[in-house]
Amino acid sequence: MKVSIFDVAKKSGLSVVTVSRVLNGAGTVREKNRQRVLDAMKELDYRPSAAARSLARGKTGIIGLMLATLQDSFYDRIVSEINEILEEHGYYLAVSVTKFPPGETSHYLIQEDRVDGLILLSPTEEDHYIEELKRRNIPYVLIDNQHEANDDYSVTVNNFKGGYMAGQLLTELGCRSIAHLSGDEIYRSTKERRAGFVKALDDAGLEPFELIRGKYETEFGYHTVKRWIAAGQLPDAVFAGDDYIAAGLINAFKESGIRVPEDVSVVGYDDQDIASMLRPFVTTVRQPANLIAEAAADLLLRQVGESQSGDEDEGKDEAARLIGQRVDPELIVRQSTRSIGTTTKE
To answer: Which of 7, 172, 270, 278 has the most CB atoms within 10 Å of its CB?
Structure first.
């Protein structure tokens, strides 16, 4: 039969509360009582389970993470990195896929004693969740949040800079007729990438060939190319709002006999796995998943530590110093872009 904390209490002649305090390393236990508990544990060969340790610490040992989809290699890298970091700190990661519907905050993870903290990855209607998390006193961190007012507890990417880098690359390569296909307007990153791109073209004295709003889907890129071909007008370069849109563009160009990059250069965004699987390999703006994960885990772990510190004033003082982080993207130049007037080596 498996030995329990109750067996240790009975063997030591002390209460379960005292045994729990010893397991938790509390300094309020008398030395002779602590030794009696340790002796009983040794004699019974008692090894506290993760659940027992969590109860002793007043924690669940679980961090929750909510995101809208698992069909995204960028999200997958973030989740994997966060999982590894939390594991090193003795936490388990509970992942939930949710569509973040407006006003629906009764998610099972957002309940007392379910998790020690929560990470929301690319949430929409985030204010509804934040209000509920604060009410329940659950530490939280946002990744790719939509409202600047919530940036103190968030990790974001400088998407304006990413859009600017994409536009700047294409103008410096000699492209003069450049289009941009942006994704869902509900995302702040969509607007920032477009604004950065427009600024880069403005600095180069250029107007966009076309600014088109759509979805982060391959079909959006594909059908846009077909429309351009039907109209008999093509740009000499396209900045796609993400790599899936870029994939749709490239497929449609190749299907129509238009060469990438010889005839049209293409830049994507995110550095999804698909960017290095397509031929040609896609030039893209990489979001640093490892840095995002590290920053998010650090921000949340500091909050979780404060909520369990037992010193309310100290926790509040430290919480006031917690400020979200903004990380820079990286331009990854591959085969889908080239200078105007040059030829591509086989």
So the answer is: 270
| Prediction pTM value | 0.78
| Domain of residue 22, CATH code | 1.10.260.40
- The reply to whether 165 and 198 lie within a common domain is yes
Side-chain-side CA neighbours of 127 within 13 Å: the count stands at 4
Do residues 192 and 220 share a domain?
yes
What pLDDT was estimated at residue 18? 81
Q: Is residue 262, in this structure, part of any structural domain at all?
A: yes
Q: Which residues contact 231 (CB under 8 A, 6 or more apart)?
A: none
Q: Are residues 256 and 136 in the same domain?
A: no
Tokens linked to 319: 């919480």
Q: At a CB cut-off of 8 Å and minimum separation 6, what does 115 contact?
A: 60, 62, 63, 64, 94, 109, 138
Tokens of 11: 């063997």
Q: What is the pLDDT of residues 73-89, one digit of tens each?
A: 999 999 999 999 998 88
86 and 31 in contact (C-beta within 8 Å)?
no
The more confident residue out of 340 and 236 is 236
Selected residue with higher pLDDT from 199 and 345:
199
Q: Which of 64, 66, 145 is nearest to 100 (CA)?
A: 66
* CB count in 10 Å sphere of residue 83: 18
Contact 275, 281 (CB under 8 A): yes
Q: What is the pLDDT of residues 139-188, one digit of tens each?
A: 999 999 999 999 999 999 999 999 999 999 999 999 999 999 999 999 99
Q: Record the tokens describing residue 62, joined without a space.
A: 């679980």
Q: To the nearest 5 percent, what fractions of the chain are helix, strand and coil?
A: 45, 15, 40
Q: Are residues 175 and 276 in the same domain?
A: yes
In a domain, 331, yes or no: no
Beta-strand relationship, 330-332 and 283-286: antiparallel
